[in-house]
Amino acid sequence: MRALGTRSAARPLALSAAALLAVWAWGLGLAAGPTATSGPRFAEVSAVSGIDFVHRHGGQGRKLYIETTAAGLCWFDHDGDGWQDLYMVQGGPLPGTVRPPGDSASRLFRNRGNGSFEDVTSKAGVADVDGYGSACTAADYDNDGDEDLYVTNFGPSVLYRNNGNGTFSDVTAAAGVRNGLYAASAAWADYDLDGRPDLYVANYVDFTMNDQKYCGDIKVNRRSYCHPDAYGGLPDALYHNEGNGRFKEVAKAAGIWDPNGKSLGVVWIDYDADGDDDLYVANDATPNMLYRNDGNGRFTDVTLLSGTCCSEDGKPQSGMGVDAADADGDGWQDLFVTNLSNEPNELYRNLGGKGPFAIMSYAWGLGEVSLLATGWGTAFFDYDNDADLDLVVTNGHPMDDIEQVSDIITYAQKPFLFANDGSGGYRDVGAQSGPFFQSPDVGRGLAVADYDNDGDLDFALNPNNRPARLLRNDGGRDAGHWISLKLEGVRCNRDALGALVTVTAGGRRQVREARSASSYMSQNDMRLHFGLGAATQVDSIEIRWPSKDRQVERVGRQAADQFLVVRQGSGVVRRAPAAVQPPGTR
Amino acid sequence: MQKARHPRVPVLASALLPVVLLGCPGGSTQAPGGGEAEASLATALAHGDSAFRDEDYDEAQVAYEHALQIEPDHARAVAALGTCYLKNRQVKKASDLLTDHLRRHPENTAARLVLARALLRQAEYGLAAEALRAALRSDPDNLMAHYNLGFIAYRERDFDTALSHLKRAIVLRPDHVEAHYTLGLVYLARERYGDSVAELEEAVRLDPKHVGAHFNLANAAARAGRMPLAEEHQRIYADLSGRTKADAERSAQVKAQSVKAVEFLMAEKYDQALVEYRKLLAENPDYAPLHNDIGRVQLKLGQKQEALESLRRAIAIDPRLSEPHYLLSNLYRDLGDQAGADRELATFAALETIPEGKSGY
């Protein structure tokens, strides 16, 4: 198919005439709606798709702290052909050691558009060979029409500027975004609405390679990975995009200042819907932080007022991954944070953008089930296209010897797939959603995308010291109608990061925010995917663009089941139906 | 990864301690057989109780296991051993022991309560509630059974059941802080903010240092539109949770300035890191972690005597800081002082003990 890139088609059309006709008829509501059967299932397609990446932490028994925290992955369209490519962040070898033969650095997999990927790392020049990688985040920071890539490391991080021809240039030094500390997640957003994406880098702890503390049971000489209490926190970095290819670190000046924080997850979220992005940081063993954007380039710490710092008992937890979305369909974005075992994953319900959030973890069925698990990557996504947001969580303990310490907690753990029942309740449906959900793993990064452009959401994972996994959604498209939006800013930043989109269909309103990274060290497909249930058309699309004038643009009725590109001020400028699956992949 | 315990487990744990320890007789009248067996049993129990009081749960576990070898179904020893297993993170083992025992002795309420606690640790709320209801059948006014059933019902959003059990717990013991606190949470979840504020105010009256009660009182008051009350309890919460402005600012200042030192450490430039730390020390001479950091860098530079002084100084300021004990242990060993090394290592191990219910374990 000709997908929705910003450049000329690089690949032949793959959509048959019959399929086009069917999609056209469906879009007009002439065809019968999808017939749900047993519900979508996720098929593991890593091998068949060519995603043969294996994360290596590089550990050799010393139990160095950095070995157990990484790594992430990013879905982004690096060549603008409309297909989501996949960047996998590598950890090992440990700093100061040689990469063993056969182990790869970080890798970029180009999506061929036929269900398979090819490794284009060398050509692209994004291997980050000198880095011990944590996370990645992609955005068009220079507004030149292609997606750039920032990779965080333990030590100096790297900014790769996209040259627009499938290659990237390392511009870290010139841009001034080296960071240099033990970085975890990072995320782009235009917090001051000057049209240029800025960059937030979450720094974790002050571990250094030559500062290994003894953790474990010294009586039996069992060395384990340390608890984060063993190390001090670090201040995060907020790099303001100066617009000349350079950035300026402004965290403290902007009021984002938590030098003791042990930050792992980050998400930009306009929680008060006032048109500028606020910031939420998930911290490990220190309180999570919520900073309200005051609209003047400064932020106010509203953590205590919001109650999003902690457990229900006011105690800081072990925040790992985070996502933000309107879980209960009331129009306000909620927060979901994954935590360590013996702590529930927390769902903070936004009660209207002011004052405290309500902690709904147990009430909504997400608490008790997560107590024995350690959650990391997570994402709200409507996997069954039924017009509400479900949740996926990848799990796995940080200590590889936890089973010697506890008889109820395991190192590898099963992931969760929580289906939203549409009324504020979640239920783990992993058991009926494919064997993947029954296979324990050491989860870390997780990111969602419709990588096969078929109208339902898939996801990929980067487990710690294990092979990557790609999970294809089979049946999501048949379970409900959908629409996917790619936003193109003109007066705002090109990716429209921070745009708030409201889709009304079948009498139901859904709100999504365009953003870069979230989850744990990872980034989802930036296109906004809306499940529509039985609705065969969208009645209206309202976009509040992230610009100082808070421009609101309304797009009229649209047929369901298509990908749209909406350009600021111009409405829908391109559209395409779902891809037909190539033979042999399904 | 986090330090705090699961919020409810310690409540049940501390309440069960008297159940386990109360009635510790000098000797058991239940022991069958002759006086020798009775004496052995009494000795094992006394040893276990003593170790338990000293929080040496490994030792207590061995003693109670020995007691059960002498008398396999000794009611108090079973409950005590189950508790030790929980303390030592052998949760499943505790469940198996107690379930097996209760099959033969369903009347053992203390064992039933420990089983409920083990099931809570395994996130088996339904089974825990079942165990607690069974305990109530033999002891209808059991305070802990009512409280924990109320807590579980709250978690499972069965608010009517929660209210019933929590109110009963308060009748049985009007100053039960956790019952008032949990009742406040129930009202908060039901959006009965006035009632929630009242119960949480009672909880903080009974325990002015109850972090969770202040945290939720601030929340309930804000949602009730009582902002001055909300702000007052936010302030108290911030103080109690170690985030007073002065402390936070000082710690933040030290941390912010030490980032440069951390960067030097990452680059293995120890001399320059030491210079940075010394600058910080001049402004914060009584900040124990800084002395430890300096000691660690001095060790890297081979300055053993200076490191010795720095680490000792860190311990003198904050004896509970564990790392200098570990570093000192290695240093003493290097210097040929094996006794000193062993002593510091033992202190380090004691400070690093993982408390029951700690996040991640």
- CATH A-level architecture of the largest domain in chain B: Alpha Horseshoe
Instruction: Write the element-wise H/E pattern of chain B from the N-terminal end onward.
Output: HHHHHHHHHHHHHHHHHHH
Q: What is the CATH level 1 assignment of the largest domain in chain B? A: Mainly Alpha
Q: How many E strands of chain B?
A: 0
Largest beta sheet of chain B, briefly?
none
Rg of chain B from C-alpha positions?
A: 26 Å
Task: Tell me the CATH superfamily of the largest domain in chain B.
Answer: Tetratricopeptide repeat domain
Work out the largest interface and the residue count of each chain. A-B, 68 and 62 residues
Low-confidence stretches of chain A: 1-37, 582-586
Summed up, the helix count of chain A is: 8
Please state roughly what percent of the residues of chain B sit in beta strands, choosing from under 5%, 5-15%, 15-25%, 25-35%, 35-45% or over 45%.
Answer: under 5%
Write the layout of secondary structure elements.
The complex is a heterodimer of chains A (586) and B (361).
Chain A: H1 17-27, E1 41-44, H2 46-49, E2 73-76, E3 85-88, E4 107-111, E5 117-119, H3 121-124, E6 133-139, E7 148-162, E8 168-170, H4 172-175, E9 179-189, E10 198-203, E11 216-217, E12 222-223, E13 237-241, E14 247-249, H5 251-254, E15 263-269, E16 278-283, E17 289-293, E18 299-301, H6 303-306, E19 322-325, E20 334-337, E21 346-349, E22 358-359, E23 375-381, E24 390-395, H7 402-405, E25 416-420, E26 426-428, E27 445-449, E28 458-462, E29 469-474, H8 476-479, E30 481-488, E31 500-505, E32 508-513, E33 517-518, E34 522-523, E35 528-533, E36 537-538, E37 540-544, E38 552-555, E39 558-559, E40 562-567, E41 571-577
Chain B: H1 9-21, H2 35-53, H3 57-70, H4 75-87, H5 91-104, H6 109-121, H7 125-138, H8 143-155, H9 159-172, H10 177-189, H11 193-206, H12 211-223, H13 227-240, H14 245-266, H15 270-283, H16 288-300, H17 304-317, H18 323-334, H19 338-351
Helix pairs in contact in B: 1-4, 1-6, 2-3, 3-4, 4-5, 4-6, 5-6, 6-7, 7-8, 8-9, 8-10, 9-10, 10-11, 10-12, 11-12, 12-13, 14-15, 15-16, 16-17, 16-18, 17-18, 18-19
